[in-house]
Amino acid sequence: MRHSPRLIAIAALCLAALPALADKLRLPATPNAAWQEECTSCHLGYPPSLLTAANWRQMMGSLDRHFGANARLDPGTRDQILVFLEQNASTKETRQSPSLRISETPWFRHEHDEVPARAWSDPAVKSAANCGACHRGAAKGNYDEHDVVLPVAARR
Ligand code: HEC
Ligand code: HEC
Questions:
Q1: pTM of the entire predicted model
Q2: Ligand 1 centroid to 22 CA: how many Å?
Q3: How far apart are CA 131 and CA 139, in angstroms?
Q4: Rg for the chain (alpha carbons), in Å?
Q5: Which domains does the chain have, with CATH numbers?
Q6: What is the Å distance from ligand 2's center to 100 Cα?
Q7: Beta carbon of 143 within 6 Å of any ligand 2 atom
Q8: Is 95 in the pocket of ligand 1 (CB under 6 A)?
């Protein structure tokens, strides 16, 4: 069967769009159960693809000193979560964090360079790590730009 040039053109367009789609931020389709249990209780579950494997290894090796909190786990659970994080980590240099904070990666700064300073200090936000204050679907891993709201005070 011969394919029409038009169909081929459409197929090519779809293929070209694939990397962009793959780049959309999502939680893995089947998050690890231990991660779900242990890493979404104090804050929302941060998508593993927002840091590098090296970052996650370092974080999982210092859970007793976790951004001022003690998030210590038994070694078995910790190792299981680390495998999940490593498998879904980013390989991009722009997602390597010097401080282990996602909010301090070059990628994050770039994506948010148009967010006004007063939005970050708004009482409803408090911390850049509080993704859900602006991204209404963050807990479900949805960071679509069409689903972002700035806190009221910052919109003025
Ligand atoms: C006992 C509470 C607690 C648990 C459990 C916990 N965290 Fe956290 N986590 C925190 C606190 C507190 C912060 C700092 C939040 C802030 O600055 O607003 C934080 C920050 C983070 C950040 C940095 C966010 C940013 O960009 O600033 C990451 C990534 C993170 N946690 C991952 C994890 C992972 C992975 C686990 C599971 C192994 C986990 N956390 C379990 C309390 C916890
Ligand atoms: C103070 C509000 C605010 C907070 C807090 C915030 N963001 Fe954003 N974010 C925005 C705005 C505004 C944009 C720009 C939307 C646009 O491109 O029009 C954005 C863009 C993004 C994008 C790009 C979306 C796209 O479709 O291009 C991602 C991904 C993202 N943020 C992730 C995060 C993560 C992860 C966190 C928490 C660690 C976070 N954001 C915290 C306001 C916020």
A1: 0.88
A2: 25
A3: 9
A4: 19
A5: 26-101 (1.10.760), 112-156 (no CATH)
A6: 18
A7: yes
A8: no
Evaluate whether 149 touches 137 at the Cβ level (below 8 Å).
Answer: no
Kindly tell me the burial class for residue 85, based on how many C-beta atoms sit within 10 Å of its own C-beta (0-12, 13-18, 19 or more). Answer: buried
Segment 31-59, tens digit of pLDDT: 999 999 999 999 999 999 999 999 999 99
Work out the burial of residue 55: count CB atoms within 10 Å of its CB; fewer than 13 is exposed, 13-18 middle, 19 or more buried: buried
Tell me, what's the pLDDT at 71?
Answer: 98
Q: Ligand 2 within 6 A of 35 CB? A: no
CB 73 within 8 A of CB 63: yes
Shortest-distance Cα residue to atom 19 of ligand 1 = 67
How many whole angstroms from 53 Cα to the centroid of ligand 1?
Answer: 16
Of 14-18, 46-50, 51-55, 73-77, least confident by mean pLDDT is 14-18
Q: Ligand 1 pocket, 38 CB below 6 A?
A: yes
Report, as an integer, the average pLDDT of 68-87: 98
